[in-house]
Design a protein that fits this description.
It is a single chain. With 251 residues, the chain is mainly α. Among the domains are: 19-113, no CATH class; 182-248, no CATH class. The protein contains eight helices and six strands. The chain has helices at 2-16, 18-35, 59-64, 67-82, 103-108, 191-200, 222-233, 240-248; strands at residues 44-45, 56-58, 94-95, 111-113, 139-141, 153-155. A two-stranded antiparallel ribbon has the order 1-3.
């Protein structure tokens, strides 16, 4: 058992190191690609990007390139990124990025972003801000606060209720009647009103009233449970629409 726990711990450590090794493997792959043909120092090499739409090259190489050459590489990388590809077109490959066959020198080169040489490969510009971490449903992030810190989330402002329309175009509520039970009592939202509410509030489980005669409802069914729950929580409703709603549900 002790050996099994030890192996699990080692496995966990290896998984955590995957990301760290991925970048190193990327650099090594680029080096191997540059020397596989045993050609002179000037070889065609695919420059690896520092991100989905970023491309990096040694600073010395960037300084030797013309504006059109840099623009061609950056445009190719961004186009590939927009298409969901990591590698840009081979037509935009450049030469002169080799380090003379030395892996040590290859890694030590000052890799910079072609689009903005003042930034190192993978470095974010001041304008690139991380999207604030989301708060739980019904709350929003307080600007300038850190994720998980006290007071970092606040309750979202309540949305204005939809205007109730009981007649005419856009009718979303039934007109409350002073008498009658079930559907004849009126009150409550129409099916159209419920559908409109769901469209504006994705994930809502709102449904129309259960107007069926209680004696015809199957005991323990979803409709029977909904009716019982509504009647229990609406006992204190004394207004015209409230009383009509209770009659509509046959409470």
């Amino acid at each position: 058992m002790a050996n099994a726990n030890k192996l699990k711990k080692i496995s966990s450590q290896l998984k955590k190191s995957v990301k760290a090794h991925a970048k190193q493997a990327e650099i090594i792959d680029g080096y191997l690609s540059s020397v596989k043909n045993n050609s002179p120092a000037m070889r065609r090499v695919k420059a690896k990007g520092g991100g989905t739409k970023k491309v990096c090259l040694p600073l010395a190489k960037i300084r030797s390139m013309s504006s059109s050459e840099k623009s061609k590489i950056v445009s190719a990388k961004r186009k590939a990124g927009a298409a969901g590809k990591y590698k840009r077109s081979s037509k935009s490959n450049t030469t002169g990025t080799s380090s003379g066959g030395s892996l040590k020198n290859w890694v030590k080169q000052d890799w910079r972003q072609v689009a903005n040489p003042s930034l190192k490969c993978g470095e974010k510009s001041p304008g690139e801000k991380k999207s604030p971490a989301k708060c739980w449903q019904g709350y929003e992030r307080v600007p300038g606060t850190a994720k998980g810190s006290k007071g970092s989330c606040k309750k979202s402002p309540a949305k204005k209720a939809e205007p109730r329309k009981t007649i005419g175009r856009g009718k979303n509520f039934n007109k409350a009647n002073p008498t009658g039970t079930g559907a004849k009592a009126g009150g409550g939202m129409t099916q159209k009103g419920v559908n409109e509410y769901k469209r504006k509030n994705p994930g809502s489980k709102l449904k129309t009233a259960v107007t069926k005669d209680p004696s015809k409802l199957k005991p323990g069914s979803k409709d029977a449970k909904r009716r019982k729950s509504f009647c229990a929580r609406s006992k204190s409703w004394k207004g015209e629409r409230g009383l009509a709603a209770r009659r509509r549900w046959n409470c």
